[in-house]
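Lab meeting notes turned into a lecture example. A postdoc, R.K., suggested we walk through two folding results consecutively so the class can see how the record format repeats. The first protein's sequence and structure tokens come next.
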Amino acid sequence: MAPQPSNTRAAQLTTSGLGAQFVSPRKPRNKLKTQTLVELPGQKAKQDKLQAKLAALLAGKPTSSSEPTTTSTSPDIENTPADAYEDSFIKNEVFPLIQPDESVPPLNTSECFTSLDVLSCRCATAAQVLILHGLFPTSPSQPRMAVSTDLLAFYRALFERSCDAVNALASALHTHYVRRGFRMTNGKGEFIQEPFWQSLGQAILWFDVLQVELESQLERAVQASRDLVEASREPPEHPAPFIPTVDVIPRERCAVILLQRCPACFGGVVFGRKLEEGGDIHVATDGNFHHRHRRSAGDSPHFYDPSYFLPKAQVDAIGRHIDRTRKSAPKPHAPLVPHEAIDLCENSYEAADGKKQKAAMDSFDDTGVMALICRHDIPLFFANIDTPGEQQKYAVALIDHLFALIPGGATVVTLYDVGCVLARSLSQYDILAETVTKRLRFATTAMHAYGHEWSCQLIYNPRICEGLGLSDGEGTERLWSRFIRLIGIQRSSSRQRRLWLLDRQAAAIGLEMRADLGDWIRRRLKRGIDEQGTAAQATLSECDATIEDLRHQWALQRQSQLSICAHAPARLKKELDTVFALQGDLDASEKALQATSEVISKGNVSQCTRDAIESLERSHQRLMDKVDVLYASLNVHDRFPELEGINVEFVRTLLLARDLKINIRKRAIGSFFEWDKLDRAVGSTQQALGTKLHQQTRKAISKRQPALLAALRKFNGYCEHLEELYEPDCSIPLPTPLPTKLNELRNDQTLMKDIWITPSVGDVPRWLDDQDVRDGIRAMLKRDRCIEEQRRLGLEADNLCRWFGDELAAIELALQLPENIRFSILLRQRREHLQHLQIRWSNPLVSPLQFESRARHAESLAMRISGASQECALHWVPLISCTTSVEEEEGAEDPEVTATFFDDPPPEHLALDDIINIDTLDSEDEEDIDIPADPRALITWHTPQRVIIDAVPPMNETTVIIPGILRTLVCPARDAFPQQIFEPKDIKILASPTALLNDSLINGCAVLLYLDSLQASPTVQQYAILSTHDLPRIRYNASDDMLWRNISRTKYWAKDVWIIPIHRPSGVGHWVLCIVHLQSKELHLFDSFAEQRPWKSEVKDIMKLIVRLFNIARQHQRVFKVDVDFYGWVARPLIVKDRGSD
């Protein structure tokens, strides 16, 4: 018998050459295969044909190319021999190998004009036939030119990035064809200068209108699915024992148009947040007068209905209503800011003056645009400005339209450059309904706030207002920067085309910014909350005052600076200016009179000359006395009783310094804005200014800078003079001089502070005198805004996740409805876009798992509504049998006992337990137990009855630890408890009355206390003491096996009461305790600090722990001692008063 080949590596086949090169081993041939070789038909003829041609080429003989490539009749393939068929195949498919004729230039048919004969009829018009072939006609009825739809789609995408570029595209096409020898001529044979401009523009316009109509039909189909999804939601049902801790607010939604534009702002379902806490929605509004339209450009027929612009009739109706209400007397109201301060703000801003002409109405019929955006800079609505100035009707119309689209309980904060002026107008007149004004709050934008009076900033500055977070309201400025390319184009376009350009550009910007919401949240978390919050916390840590002291000082500052006495009335200021001007003239005449007297007295003068000089001095003195009488007649001390007894010269200089500082602040802020305009291109953040505008800005700065520097020097002179006249008894804080360098002035915080003109009662307040307190107040406000911003970002992230699930469910349902079959491609594109948003919107506040869960729920919800059955793929696991020999050892289990193991379901069935229903021994019992997916417990802040609080024994603070004596103590394992080890460092912690306990000490001491108590009283057996690590395992989703290994020793299923120690790592670290009473379904909470807020999340984790342990015990065939019911649980505190370190 021949030896069998070895399977070793050495027996493998090799090839000769450089060493032993192994080859792939031959596989055994399948004996079922036949040994007959199959010849392909025509293969022999094909090889002969190719070899003949190859031989002809090698011999230098040209091959004949006169063979026809097509035949007029179809050959009989079935009756044709294989060789003949193969020859025909070669003739038709293989090109002859010949050298091209260089005298004939190659013709590229893709770069020339093509004439097409389009056949149309009543059932298929010429436009429909062209579109069917991928061409879009340039006119609707008799088109003579058509443009590729691919080119129009590309231009539509280009328009979203570079605005209107039809002129550039038409000129580029004309140049492209001219360079290739193709020119467009008219009927006379003359060349046309711009052959594509008008036709291409019309094609682009109507192609976009057609796309908008298609999108609107698609939106209606999706909206029908949204309605079905919303109708399928059942109201939340609570079991009878459940008592909500707060009022159940019905589910409310904003209008669909708002949801589609910014789901982060308008995707909530619960509204009614107090305005003092920041409200529900933040929006900003502002006007721009660069987007004008020349009257000479004319108008065009109506072809497009803007989705962003309010109708002119709606805006005009608001304007007429404002005019009617202003004819009535103002309503009495308590102003938040003195009217004197609001008047100064109104005079400072051009936006507050609706009558000021900002554009020549004889040259422009549309003078600007008013925008309303959300706090994420997404445009919401626009109003076309057709008046010379920025009248209030535009902002009021936008706000009124917004309130018509939000729930009745939603609150809104509007940021506006002159929000203080508009807020006062709405308070004085019934411009908006009371149901709107009570849900509306105004604030100024962050950048423009520094041009307002300080008392106005205390109420309207978003960086100072409570609840506004880091909303700045400057998104309108960023929006205008994106519209800057449209300014020149829209001025010469028709009025209808101007609105179309702005509306379509706003839509493109809105979609782009909506997709960027996830990145926006991440940037705000990093650059806003992280960086600014860290800097504020560092300042607070260096401040000597506590947070409570800073809040108290801030309250005193607001109260003092919002007082009416802090603002001189306008009439008094005017009269004082007249008196001070007269006083200045008299001072100048007095100096001239003294100089004349000194010169004359040196020479020999007559008595008549001396009498004349003395007469002039007496007359001057009488005028000075009259000025004092005039000043006294102003009743300054009556209007300001605090100034009684203070030197008149001091008061006069103080008021002059106050007015001068207000003027300096306005000049300086204007100069700062101009420098920012010059530096706008630094870091490539914005578009740089043109040469002309740059030169004009620098010229304006250099022109105004000397006046500003002179005012600064004059103000510092006033400060020096006030210091000379200062009397300590007056208790008026002296103003601080300002730096004369503009760079230092910009960073000087005292520039925004008004001069204190009234004496302070008692000592000078710390907020005015202590620089450390002033820095601490600013840091405290910044930290508060960062905390508010983080909370709002969390709500917005939840809104994004919720909207994603609802929108995906609507699209999935629309795809399954048969009436939407024509939109299937567009719906799939929307679904792919949403799936891409799922990745982009993931952020630290909403994990990708939450989006995945929403996606799965949306798919199942759409399946349920449509009635379609969701298919589940079943994968059968092959059975593997193996035999193993196991030696019997001592203590091995009885075969009869181990045999019962095979009654349990196999592992493959456990994996498919949710698909295959397996009847086990415990299946009937499992159906009788209702286990909620999200167990809850009602937290009521009342102590349970019959609670006895033992007195805390005094701490022994005389314990002394002698080094070298301590050694490790070991408590042996006992009563299912593992071995407890106490290191010397742990014993030192126990001996110290102020040291912080760790996990090892809490767990070890609990075991010792339990064992000692068990010897004293057998009733202790009803208690199960859990470890400090058990609740964190629930939070981190530990496996059931890990929980069972660590907790089964306590035999918790046989206990009535569970004791759970909990550690709170916030601050310095704090230990609390929860006692679970299974029989009464109560959680007793112990916290020596009596804090209520942290228990809300901890109670949820405790209820999850109870459910998990219950399920694990059932899996291991453990029966609970008491009947566990997971509904109607109540959590109560054991103490409600702070006991501190007790």
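The second example is placed directly after the first for contrast:
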Amino acid sequence: MLKVLKLEEAKAPGNAPSASGQGLNANQTLQGHTDSVVVAAWNEQHNKLTTSDSNGLIIVWTLHKGLWFEEMINNRNKSVVRDMRWAADGSRICIVYEDGAVIMGGVDGNRIWGKELGSELVLVAWSPDSRRLLYCTPAGECHIMDAGGNPISQVPLRCKDSYGGESEIVGLEWYSGQERYYEPGCAALAVCLCTGQMQLMTDELDDTCLVINTGMQVSNIKWNSNGSVLAVSGVIANSNSPAAAVVQFYSCYGQHLRTLRVPGSSINALAWEKGGLRIALAVESFVYFANVQPSYHWGYFAGTVVYAFSKADRPEACVVFWDLQTKETHAKYVKRLVTIRAAGQHCILVTRGEETGQCNLILCNSIGTPVDSNTMMVEPLCLAMTATHVVAAAKDTVFVWLYNPLTGSSNMESLGGSKLAQSEATFRIDAALSPRGVESFQGSKDPITAVTAAPHMLLIGRSSGDFVVYTLPDLVPVGRHTLRCKPQALALNCNFTRLSIIDFNGVLSFYDFHVPPLQPGTQGIGVPTAGEHLAAERKDVWSMVWSEDSPDLFAMMEKGRMYIFRGLDPEEPIQSTARLCYFKDLEVTAVTLDEVMKAGTQPQAEHLLQFETRSLRDTRQLLTTVPMADTLQFVEQNPHPRLWQALAEHALKARNFDMAEKSFVRCAEYQGIQAVKQLRRLDTALKQDAEIALYLKQFDEAETLYRRMDRPDLAIDMRMRLGEWFAAEKLLKQSNRNDALLVLVWNKIGDHHADRQNWYKAAAYYAQAKNSEALAEALYHLEDFEGLEQLTAALPEEAPLLLQLGDQFQSVGLCQQAAAAYIKGGDVKRAVDCCVALSQWDQAVALAQQYSIPQVHSLLFKYAAMLLDQQKTMEAVQLYRKAHLHKEAAQLLLQLAQTEAASHAPPLRLKKLYVLAALEVDQLKARMLNIGDQGATGAPARPAQQSSETGTAAQTLAGLVELEGGGEQGSGAVSLVNAWHGAQAYHYWLLAHRHLYAGNTDAAMRTALHLRKYDDVLEPKDVYSLLGLTAFYNGFFGQCSKAFTRLESLSTIEQTKREQLADLAMAIFMRDPPNDPKSLYETKDHSSVKLSALGTALTGKGSKRQVCVASGKVIKDKCSAVCCKTCKQYTSSAERQDKDICAMCHSPLPLGPSSSIMTSLSYPDADMEE
């Protein structure tokens, strides 16, 4: 028989899902198998179910319109299917048979491949990436093959080594990783033997696997849907008792979480529900469904629920702080989160550190802001927290941290520590106290399983059932107590006289302490030295919480029900699976954490649940049904401050002030007593009702009553005292008065949005309130710098806020806006300093000129000298350029070019340096010709004086002559007029090499001939070597001979090198006479052709012929050439066709031919004869 069951889901948050047969949405019997079904496999991606019976018949079922139909059938008729698994993506299925056959099939039913392995098979599993397969044999071996069926290797089974005998593998589970891994590096592969030995591995070749002895005969294992919990089913057999079917739950780190006992003698199969909240167990002829409460990372403190969940798009854990009163949430992302605990006004986030075995403790407040942190070398299996202590315990090591909850700084002495000077301690449970650090030791045979703490004592539970009591903060052991169970969770009631214990089987029991009386004159709470383990027990308990104000009240969760106990007597149960937060004032607060985790960062109000005790419910019912005197009698019989408070509030509503005052006295509510006295002084019932509503925190009703009294001022005052500024704004607008109060409210609303980083809304309210300072802060956070500029323009001169605006502009590099703000604020020096700090030297110099501040230039030159000392020449050049000191910039560039030329820098870089220097010289000339602007050095001009045009022209001409004179000096000075000359030299040098490498030897030789004019920039040896080489390859042996002659005459050539040149020349010219095949323009001796200082050609015969900087050829028709307006070099029309920029300086070329002052290399027409 084959059935498909569909369970109904929970209908209301917090209600336990139904697990009975009556909660089935579907119950369909599938017909097709003629014998018992032995294997089944789901394909969730394609809604398919694959089953196989004991005859080897395989049927694939598909879901269509809510019903399952038979889709495909297959039967080898040779053997029985032992296991089959779908790949993680649902595209392929692997089937293993008992006779050793392995078949790989596709989702469409086609066979992909099949193999006979020659040995019996029992289990198979896919890797998460669907690239590898694991299969097991009855002999206890686990082999690896790829997805194509090719063997790879064998899985090392350490669990067999620990057993030492033959054992069959009954469990092989590899988590698919579809819902992300619980944590990076956690175990995903589980292999289990029938004898109970199990190993957890990260992958198939993990040599650091974790070996676990489950202590039972195992039948099945299965990971839950997110790979965080492994369920292991089997049988525990004892000689003293019959065999019991159990399910053990382990974390992905091998930690034993819980043991579930099941009626029956064996468990045949198990399966998890998607989401991991329920598990199905096949026990004999029954199917049991068990609710599973996942071990979430969460806690409750200071009216805030903190919880952590994982997002699919982020590797970190998202930790959310949910304020239960305001319903606001604050989220932060934490890497390598281990667990969360909370108490008092803070919570602790434990994360794994960078070092092995190191953990970090982060103390956070209710909005997630870290207030303190610490590190420990303990991996916490148990964690407890009080308002002052954090206790973390491993198997045999305990770490105690005493923090200061007020300041966030750890301080032992401030909290009463007397024995230890440190604020933390680490010690072994079986050894003496060690203030810091733990020496290496063998693991304890009685490991720690649970811890809990109170302000004055620490309790540590152990596997044997013992628990040890220590004093806090001194950590002195004062007693050892014995339990009859292995504790998993411990908790103390509010007066520390009773301890609750939940063991690993889910049994709740209690231990009563006998606290000795304190010595006379001593303060504090006594530490118990003896006690008794009570006989009362409750089974299947997974959570409990003590009341914070009544030592005999507690609430617990048993299966899918919540019970509230007074002493050991339970009230009627409530159906719920919510997590208990706290129990106070006869009310239990709980959250449906399963739904909260699904909601992520947006939990809803319905996820918060409130449960009242029976006495509080009865009191409320009596107040509405019987006279108040009868209710008073009931409360006196069941005294509790919350019941007296309820009676007092009801008496106030009825204006029974005597009863209200008496009740307030009994519950010690001083504010209520004062409220009654004030109510008695009021003269009208309406005023009394308004004040009663205000005391009962029924603010909307109080506002309505104030408005009925025509006293909106009282309603406004109430809203302002409550901090409800939005309601106050609404009331003020309706009253149409008190503009000053409205401005105050707008400022408060702006502060409200600013506290929540909602700067856009904050800026709007600050603008309404005309709060310029707060508006500036909001606009700065919004990066609305245009708005800040408008605010700067709107402020009056020398307003103090202007200087703050200048600082804000400067912090983001807006120099112009910052300087304007500083100047308008009356601090010109800060404006200049801002320009200097942001390296805007042109603005700094302009401001210095305008406001006569001479210190800027000294600072500039000092800064430039510092850059030069640090070998940052280009930064110094940029500094001079920004300050319009073109002469200094050009000099530095020329010096740098000469220095790098001596160190044989790349010619292209040298050309660029010369071009940059020449451009600076041109800008210097332009500024000199700009009459009355700046002097030749770029220094600030003196105040303008009246002068004639003749005097101005003479001054400009004198500056140019001075520049030319400086260019002619040689003793250490750098010639500025030779900048373009140097750029031309390296340009033709590069152009000649480009022609030569391209195989154009004629153009290369012609270009090399031009280099004879630049031997003052280039090395003559390099010039004539290149000329001789290009002339040789071009067949102009006459020019080649001249080049050899010039080389041999150079004084810089060594004698050995000179002899080698002579031998080479002899070998060349013995074969080829030193004659040129023809006469060229460039081969003529144009010794009279020179460049003048200002670029004008010398007088000669006829007009000048220019050289094309793109090809190196002489231009015969200058009218067809184009002259660059920047470097004054010509480009022939033939080269101009595909070039839009100048080959020399890379400036855009003009559209047509042009003429200009000649600074390029030129030849007289009379000398150009072939």
